[in-house]
Write a structure and sequence with these properties.
The chain is mainly beta and about 500 residues long. About 15% of the residues lie in helices and about 35% in strands. It has one domain (about 130-490): YVTN repeat-like/Quinoprotein amine dehydrogenase (Methylamine Dehydrogenase, Chain H, 7 Propeller), CATH 2.130.10. The longest helix is centred in the first third of the chain and has 33 residues, at about 50-85.
């Protein structure tokens, strides 16, 4: 729409003025735009560009792409330079080594490193529990079991099988191991007991004892620091004294019907400082109580018979913590029994069935805490399992079935309420924490060469565990902090 505007000019005439066009200007007015809205997405549409404008845009983007490629090349060159730092010259290295700042740093750091290297414990252990989460997978590989010592004597250990282990209650660094006969040395004594010392780094035994029958069980006589008790395959009980210069027993029981005539796999000193007895049990089911001052005859003797007809061939015995009257025994047929020394129910009391093979090891819960778990005990067997029991139930509470060979021995930790150790015929040492996992061991390690492990014994402090193998070697392993006593775990056990 256009409008012409005329500007009038004034013309004069005779006595009359006239209007005329002087200038014409053309002005364009845009049409009225009607704006409407709808519920669809109100997105402005890009205006259509002409071909010339598109070509101009392409020309403008080409140099930008070139700039981006140049920037990428610069970044790559920068990264390559950062990945390969410049090698210092010998002169520059010497300058740094002799600088005052480096000498101060090195002097301070070396002291810290020397302290750390001298420590046996893990200085990086996190007590907040993060290590348990971070290393949960590593524990299966034995990260909490570290090798410490190996005890082996070329003459007395070679070609002999370790039959029993025991730590001294008076001197925690002393460990005794009993050995079977050496078939390749018929002129050597059949039975050997060696006392090893953990305190010093010497490789020879502290004491060497022997007798004429293979020693199948051994133990330090509690309350008698100088005495060592051994049970033999012939049925004799022998007593060694470290105050004597003799390697042979200072006392021994007679081979008579009044004492044992079958292998004695169980020797245990129970009682108090002023009233204690030596309790022994043989595979013919006879239990005897002795005074260590006189081994000529037992103070009392009892036949372990179930239902007054079935003799019990005992392979292991254990007393609950603080109890000198009641005890549990394992048998060759795989049955476990509870028994008493005195009272109206003296002898075998109850029968516990669950194992499908001979019981090889038995251990009662021994950790002292606010909750009484003395009714719990564990057993190992030729049926490849470890079973958890309670004297309140005649069936197993749980069966641990992670082994693929005979499980030869088992023992509760003396300080940790939920921890026990087990060894098998494939050279494997397992630590089971009931509060952690019951399907797989908390920590496990296989001994070098995978020999059969016959015995396992915890040190009294619960930080070392000793295992004996079929080749006469005693292995000492340090237990990581994750398996030390934790008061909070006592309340977590629900058995």
């Amino acid at each position: 729409m256009s409008t012409r505007i005329r500007t009038a000019a004034l013309h004069s005439s005779t006595k009359r003025r006239m209007l005329g066009a002087s200038k014409i200007t053309q002005v364009d007015f845009l049409p009225r735009e009607v704006v409407s809205y709808c519920k669809e997405t109100q997105t402005p549409l890009a205006a259509h560009q002409s071909e010339e404008e598109e070509e101009e845009d392409e020309d403008n983007t080409e140099p930008k792409a070139g700039l981006e490629s140049d920037q990428k090349e610069d970044e790559e060159n920068k990264d390559s330079k950062e990945g390969h730092p410049r090698e210092l010259t010998d002169e520059e290295k010497q300058q740094i080594l002799h600088s005052e700042e480096f000498v101060i740093f090195f002097d301070r750091s070396i002291r810290v490193m020397e302290r750390a290297l001298a420590e046996d414990s893990n200085i990086f252990f996190d007590y907040s529990g993060r290590d348990l989460e971070d290393k949960e997978g590593d524990l299966q590989g034995g990260s909490s079991l570290s090798f410490s010592r190996l005890f082996y004597d070329e003459r007395w250990s070679k070609h002999r099988v370790i039959t029993c282990l025991d730590w001294s209650p008076q001197y925690p660094e002393l460990l005794v191991a009993s050995y079977n006969n050496n078939e390749d040395a018929p002129h050597e004594p059949d039975g050997v007991a060696l006392v090893w010392n953990m305190k010093f780094k010497k490789t020879t035994p502290e004491y060497i004892y022997h007798c004429q029958s293979p020693v199948v069980s051994v133990g330090f006589a509690r309350f008698h620091p100088n005495l060592l008790v051994g049970g033999t395959y012939s049925g004799q009980i022998v007593l060694w004294d470290n105050r004597s210069h003799r390697r042979t027993p200072v006392q021994r029981t007679p081979l008579s019907a009044a004492a044992h005539t079958h292998p004695v796999y169980c020797v245990n000193v129970v009682g108090t400082q002023n009233a204690n007895n030596l309790i022994t049990v043989s595979t013919d089911g006879r239990m005897c109580s002795w005074s260590l001052d006189m081994l000529s005859q037992p103070q009392e003797s009892m036949e372990l018979v179930y239902n007054k007809s079935k003799p019990v061939a005992v392979t292991g015995m254990a007393f609950p913590a603080g109890d000198v009257n009641n005890y549990v025994v394992g048998s060759e047929e795989g049955t476990v029994y509870t028994a008493s020394r005195h009272g109206s129910k003296a002898g075998i009391c109850e029968m516990f069935e669950g194992h499908q093979g001979p019981v090889t090891g038995i251990s009662c819960h021994s950790a002292v805490g606010p909750v009484d778990f003395s009714h719990l005990f564990v057993t190992s067997s030729f049926d490849w399992t470890v079973k958890l029991w309670s004297t309140k139930h005649n069936k197993p509470l749980y069966s641990f079935e992670d082994n693929a060979d005979y499980v030869y021995d088992v023992m509760w930790s003396p300080v940790h309420p939920a921890l026990f150790a087990a060894v098998d015929g494939m050279g494997r040492l397992d630590l089971w924490n009931l509060n952690n996992d019951t399907e797989v061991p908390t920590a496990s390690v296989t001994i070098e060469g995978a020999p059969a492990l016959n015995r396992v014994r915890w040190a009294s402090g619960g930080k070392e565990v000793a295992v004996g193998d079929s080749e006469g070697r005693v292995w000492i392993y340090d237990v990581g902090e994750v398996c030390w006593n934790c008061d909070s775990e006592t309340a977590e056990i629900n058995y």
